[in-house]
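Tutorial sheet, problem 5. The two components below are modelled jointly, 1238 residues in total.
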Amino acid sequence: MRWVALVAGMALLFACSQTPTSSLAKLVGSQDLVLVDELPGEGGLADLAIVDGRWVTQGTPSKYLFVTSVDTNELRVLQLYRPTQLGRSFVPAPNPIETLSIPVIARPSMLAVDEGLNANGARVTGSYVYAARPGSAVISIVGTAPSELRVVTPSPIPTPGPVTALAAWMGSGLTKLPDTTELFVATFDGRRGAVYRVPLPSSPAVLRAAIANATPANPAIQAEILFDVDAEAVMALQVMPPLAGRTVDGQPFCDTTACLAIATRRAAGLDGRNLLIDPKSLRAVPLDFQGPVRDFATIGNGFRLFGVLDEEKCGSAECGGVLAVDTGAASGATGFARALDFSGEPMLPITTGGSLPTGLALGQGAQLRQTLEVYDAGSNTREVGLALVGYDLLGVVASSNGQLTFFDGLAGMPIDYDARRTTVSSASMLVPAVLSDGGIAFTGADGGFIGYTAEGPLTETIPPVQDGGISTEPWRIISVGNPDGGDGSPYVLDVSDGYLLTQNLVVIYEGLLPGLVRQPTTYSDGTTLFVTTGYEGRASPGDRVFFYVDSVPDGGFTDGGVTAVGECGQARVTAVDAGILLVDSLPPECVDRTSFSVRASGLKPYVAAADLEGYLGRAAVGDTLTYTRRYLVKPFGWTENRPALRVTLGDTLPLVTGAYWTFALEGGLASYVMSIDSQSCSSPWLPGRLAMARLPTLYEGGTTDFPWTVAGVLPSGNSVYEIPLSGAFRGAVTSTDGLRCYR
Amino acid sequence: MRILTASVLVLALSGCPTTGAYTGPPINQLYYPTGIVHVDRPGNPHGLLFVANANFDKRFATGSVVGFDLNRIPGIPPFGAFDPDGGAPQLAALNIQAEAVVQVASFTGEMAGLETRDGGVRLYVPSRSEGNNFHAIDVAIGPDDQPALSCVLPPDAPANASLTDCPATAPSLTTFEFSESGLPRAPAPFGVSVRARRCAGADDCGAGRSCDNGTCRAANGDLFGDVWVTHITQADSPLASGKDLQAFAVRLDSDSLALTESNYVWLGPGATSSVVQGQRWAYLSGRYNSSTQSVNLMRLAEKRKVMDSSGNPVVVDAVVSAGLESTYRVGEARGVALSSDEKRLYLLGRAPDSLIVVNISDPTGDAPLLDVVRAVPLPEGSNQIRTIPRPGRSDLVAITCTGQGVVVLYDDDVGDLVAQVQGVGLQSFGLAVALRPPGARLFVTNFSDGRVALIDIPDLNRPQEARIAGYLGAQQLCLTRGATTPGCMSNEVAQ
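Model answer (structure tokens):
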């Protein structure tokens, strides 16, 4: 109780000694934001970021968050840290009951900040924030030092054409603020797109003096053109730090100086170019993003460049998402190649559920709160707990469906929030009695599983799988009996995590082959049966072919085996070729045949299919069927690429046509997606641009830490928000999780 | 007061077949202007302009629709002329003639026009005041380019009905409210679209009409088309119960104001805001539905002719929800426009203000597929949108932003805004386009200041050069807010 009283007393003292602040900025049009670090020499916050002699943030700590208030023609500044005040608030105006307004050009919707890398290769920011808007040929320059939180030039600086993109760069290996910084401006004048470099003195005082002393012959600000192209607009601009060892055709390229990544748009978005340009030699090398890009992001040394794909290429969100290109080495002809994911395959786009990405941010070493499955081999039990999981490169995408989707930027994969391993929850063996349609229709014409029909009692059901199976991180072997598939083992399933969604898996003896069911044929086809190209590989010589007619004679047809409605007779596959199957004979009753189906037989009578995956493969009795596919999400602890599924069946299954095993596969997969709770932030349905960093945070008791935080704008709610990743979790994030909104 | 008196006197002397004194806003000026239509005339460099005056504060008994020959406005700047020193001219005197004014119900919304055979135009204007009226107005244009406006009378209008007092006979879109269910009805009609109907034969046009080179014509030879009307308040059922809120779209024939229950297309819950017609479908933007706390951003509707079980043709309603809200979440929608080739739909979203660019697959099919492919933030209060075709290039898209008094231009080639014209006026609302190759002139109604802003784009390939060329009409702030209000520039508008 005394401690509480003491804290209360301290709060009162602080309240009396600190500067009153305004917490309301009345944002109208929060469209963009930038994090701004403490400048060298400001002191205080930077010292707090050194623990045990090393920095705990990526660079110097971010001190401010600049945010646009587009429709009030101003910027507002959220002060991220005050040594005597819990929480954050907007920087106050000279009259401290008001919030500081920085009037800039009308409707500033694009921001950029001077960026660079310090000697440790970490991001630092400089003296200026730049504000622009599309369709306007002026830029406001705003100071970032506490004494310069205002426009630093008498009037906005003009640009050669309407601005389409902005970036700014100070340099790398910085130990102090450089004398000059470089602003890069992309413009489009209706005919030509261009990129300009504009050197500026880092000191606002020097810049003001230069402007005051400028003459027509000696202008204070001069722009140098770096890129100029007809009928293409530069839509995205990203400064790529110099990367030691970066080469093109084996020759050094942007290895000691920064280069520019640009994305252009042409043909109304159907096409566009992505290029890495050396500002010194003006050599441009393609970036293989597989299509036009509308935004970029990178972090650290710029080895991996992420791009937001332009959905207009295909006309829907189907071709959207986030893709990465590695900029280490390129051939001049093909350019820098698409990044490989953890499995060694070219990365697939990180998608956002059919919506459009609206923001993208990256964090090096960021942590995410996830579920983890802990398996106790002694008790053969599994438990699910929570833990902070670190990522070398964590990415987050805001999207127009109101979600934030996290991904592993280094692995190039979505993150599986549900760390429960993929498993099989039940297994049953069923043997058909008399089937109503004379066969078992497991598949549709497209190869998808559509179920089965049967009459009469089916035979036995084998007890479920062993509890948990044998968990070999991050995959699981599930079996009954000997896990090695030895004597007496009905089945062994080896399922990998991250590949398969929840669905039913069926392995059927002499099953119909998906894609080769009820295929059309006529008398004129003779013994050559035509199938969809690509599906013929599912058949093998020796498989049985069943022919069907539309009208059945009285009494039907009977061949002594399975009798299907309309079935007129059977044949055997003798050869397989592209798009065709050859059969040994044609039953005389089948002159009027209209369709046929192929049923596995011969050396590989087992056919495997699943609800969502469709056809998986076929195998011989006692063999192991292996199914491979691309991953869906990256599970925690995944260290190697491996087959999605292996199935080994013993000799338990009666060798009766149509007998099958069915396994209930539990995927345990879900993309790591957050949304913003509407009770905590008003109108949160459309998040916009993002930032991710370790933000300085003062906790009760006076300790300061730098938790990983995602900050973003909410255009739908006219606010800016923050989510501390250590407190939040998948789903709707609330104020209880640490979500804060500032309006 | 003297001006109004004079106006009334002029009307009385003009011999218009009125049933009573003119009680609308002063005829030589604009008053809370909303809908706007521009008509070009051969040999007339400026064309004619038609404006709906909403009479939003009900200072007068009714609203009005006025027409005037832009060429007769003293000082109107030639297209593309710009005096950087002189600023945009304020052209208060519109020279509106007495026969170029009709009364309509207050709270007018959007306005659309369909040309007639003699170079005139028929205008369509919904009003949200008590009667929820829908007006049609015929415009005859004389050889001197002076427009004469007259109300289109519904079939059941009395023989001596007024041709200038349109509310006296205009159909009410809530006329069926006293049915048991209170439905169908369309309270607060707001958006309107008219488009000439394409045809393969006369059967496609309806009884008494003809098919002329693929386009339907009415019995009198005028173009015949479909008129679609939205309403921004849902209809409860039963009336005044506040329950079972529903919305309709009203489809009318362009050549008749006949209104039956079959003119209503049931949309389900969720009112609509604006409408545009494609080759087959009407595209209706959706308002926020507070009862369900949801929005249906875009619905497509048509009256479809099918064969019944007996093989007889019958017309059925077809409505398709595009489902855009699941892909792009905004609070509600406002204006909507189609690209020249109908491969794109441009939709204005609110909360946040956004231009949502949508690809349309199979726009003439039974179920077109709509996909959001882009979105661009807009200034506050985006309201109305028009596409401006450009030879050899993608359309330019013009948008009014009510909250900021801004008109922005979106270039589909660039994929972003390419111009933001500031200072257009207070609450920029409606938009009309006059092509002036290689450029275009935009006409923008400013709801609160009572004027029309002229914006010239000298070259559509350089839209960033768009600028305000002048203002039409006397500013109304002195009247509506008092002579001491900031922004009152003159006392030109008076009662």
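Marking note: The helical segments of chain B are 2-14, 477-481. Full credit if you identified this.
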